[in-house]
Amino acid sequence: MAAKRFTKTEYASADELVFGESKYPLSYGLGLKVGAGAVVPEINFAPRPGAEKNPETLKREYVDYITKDVLDRAVTLGFPAVQLENEWISQMGANAERFARPIVEGQKAMMRKYHDEYGIALAIRHTIADQREGDAGLRPGMDTRHSYPEKLMESLEVAVKSGADVVSIESVGGKEIADYAVVRQDIRGWLFGIGVLGSIDMEWLWSNIVDVAKRGKVVPGGDTNCAGANTAMFMAGGYLDKDIPRTFSAITRAIAAARTLVAVECGATGPDKDCGYEGPIVKAVSGRPSSQEGKGAQDAHADLMGNLIAQTCDLWSNESVEYHPEFGGSSVQCWLGVIGYEASLMNAAKQMKADRTLRDVYVASDRFRSPEAFILAYDNAFKIGQAIAANGNDYYLRAKAAGITAAELIQESNDKGKLKLTKEEKDTLSRAVADLKSLPDEQSKFLEWALKEYKDVPAFDPRNYEL
Amino acid sequence: MDFDSIKTESFLTRYDIVVETKETPQEIAARMYPPEPALRKVAEDVVFLKAKNIQEDVQAALAEFTPNQVIDGGLLRGIDIVSELYGRGIYYLPHVMVAADAFDKGIKLAEKNIAGGRETKGSVVMHAAEGDPHDIGKNIAAVMLKSNGYRVIDLGRDVLVDDVVKTVEAERPNVVTGTALMTTTMSAFPKVADRLQEKGINIPFICAGGAVNRAYVESFPMGVYAAKAAEGPRLVAKAVEGWDWRKIRENWDQLISGGK
């Protein structure tokens, strides 16, 4: 069982939520402080195709090129603090000792050198790969083909022992049902996949991650529903995209928040993962530092809340960029400049006691750009957080409450003529609310129905969730 | 802060609402239905996602028409209308997926009545790259290809280069496809291409996915880039017509923008 369930939000009011401050600030790495009064840029990167040819070529790419470029540019531009994030590629996860260990050690050694020489505050987050597959089995001993659950735990051990300051993961529990549901616009399936199955998997996974991280004195950061809610959000896309109505993706995001919170309940301390756009809701409930990405992550994708999502961040990220040359230096240098200057702006606003004004300007810019931006605006995120906490002891009920609250907030604003919706978005919203409200009031009854309804979904195996 | 009082017009234009069509799916579909009532009913079941009715209506149509007429005039016409609605942005992807479920049920019933099975337009071997667990894009593309009349051999996700090569050798498809979300898993694509060429296989290899870009795909032999799942049927149709990968590449801009 999870160590703690949130039954009330850690913040008493929405207005307390602001960038660069959290209820439970952290201090880790080489003098880095997070959520303690300043926003820190978090730079993330991907190696060029072919760099994974062997451990030496991959280490050269990650350490000698990428890490060095990042640190040089941070010093060049006068940034007082930087966090690096290394999202492990599959080769690192498949053979952690051989591929990952030299990289993790090499990055840390180089960071120490810059810290010693310049006094720059630094830390690195290692986000290990979750390659588990539902049909093969999500728990140790089940996947006889790839042993992915075992490799995940081995990756964690290697990261913790070799130099990670923070460990995170983008876990995939419930993805098989979520993928099926998202392309059918089936919100009940989504609730089952992410709200319930995802939460169950998180509870097992994060209990283990926290245990290993704490033993190694490394910060257990947090998770993200990248595999689910970001799939929905990017399919929903912008104004030229018609794959998923944006009202649907907004509701999936609220449900995902109830699931991502489980990491904290199992002992994760934050900062959660940048690509978890559910972060403002998770922060409202947990009070833990949050990493976010928006306009500074245009290297990776376009979203409809580039400014707004900076409102409550403690780390400000670029999501990820492939290492390559640009006119202004290497890609990691250019994008560090983008996020680092934004962090400087936020921190200057803090010094001038204008941070809440800047936060509100960010929100005003994008509040009505999309339903998902709207429900993540800090005042609405807080209300969704309250709905989760009010049902905090029950994974199903709290996820359902999050979804319904988000839908009702969208409806209310649309009724007032503020948040505009297309006809399809309106129809989808009505259907989703009706579907969610038609569901039983007890998790056991919902599970009984869902296990029958989704039993034939490819790759779904109830044993992965002890069901 | 009263956010509702903010006037957004100077910094936000909701183009999705500006261009929202006033035409309904019913009006567009009405112009495209087959004239025969029994076939129209089948097409309607596909267009309006009535998977529950489709078997009964296909059965009724089979009493009047040959299985191939039911497929071409009813089921595939229904999918054509769905594609039109999707192309115009009136239907969303879930409509296409649910329509494809209805189409699938109907086609299975119609095919039972064709001696030796239905002749498909061509075949495609699909996979998500070795080390890559992300396959939602491939699954969407597979549905679009199937509902456009192609046979799909879906190898799933995290597929070894060897397994792709062996399957292509055995099945001899018109096209092979690969998807990848990560820069370091897409590097399996040139390996697949090299191995296939060593075996004398020179078919178009459509590559797509989050990290994949056109320049990369065109840097190795056979590679043809696709940005979206919906482009699949258009590209595969050209391969089946006999275009080789070089000709598809040369005409790619026209093929893709011509479909918009």
Oligomer: heterodimer
SSE pattern of chain B, N- to C-terminal:
HHHHHHEHEHEHEHEHHH
Strand content of chain B: 5-15%
Helix-strand pattern of chain A, N to C?
EEEHEHHEHEHHEHHHEEEEEHHHHHHH
Q: Identify the most extensive interface between protein chains.
A: A-B, 48 and 39 residues
Give the overall average pLDDT of chain B. Answer: 92
Instruction: Please give the largest β-sheet of chain B.
Output: 5 strands, parallel
Number of strand elements of chain B: 5
Task: Work out the helix count of chain A.
Answer: 16
**Mean of all residue-level pLDDT scores of chain A:** 97
Based on CA atoms alone, the radius of gyration of chain B comes out at 21 Å
Which stretches of chain A of 5+ consecutive residues score pLDDT under 50?
A: none
Terminal CA distance of chain B reads 43 Å
Overall, the morphology of chain A is globular
Query: Biggest sheet of chain B: strands side by side, in what order?
Result: 2-1-3-4-5
Query: How does the helix and strand content of chain A classify structurally?
Result: alpha/beta
Helicity range of the residues of chain B?
40-55%
Major β-sheet annotation of chain A: 8 strands, parallel
According to DSSP, the number of beta strands of chain A is 12
End-to-end span of chain A in angstroms? 15 Å
Structural description of this entry:
The complex is a heterodimer of chains A (about 475) and B (about 260). Chain A is of the alpha/beta class. In chain A, strands 3, 4, 5, 6, 7, 8, 9 and 10 form an 8-stranded parallel β-sheet that branches. A two-stranded antiparallel ribbon of chain A has the order 1-2. In chain A, strands 11-12 form a two-stranded antiparallel ribbon. In chain A, β5, α4 and β6 form a beta-alpha-beta unit. In chain A, α6 crosses α14. Chain B is an alpha/beta fold and about 260 residues long. Helices cover about 50% and strands about 10% of the residues of chain B. Chain B has 13 helices and 5 strands. Chain B has a 5-stranded parallel β-sheet, with helices on both faces. The longest helix of chain B has 21 residues. The chains are: A alpha/beta (about 475), B alpha/beta (about 260). Chains A and B meet through α2, α7 and α11 of A and α1, α6 and α7 of B.
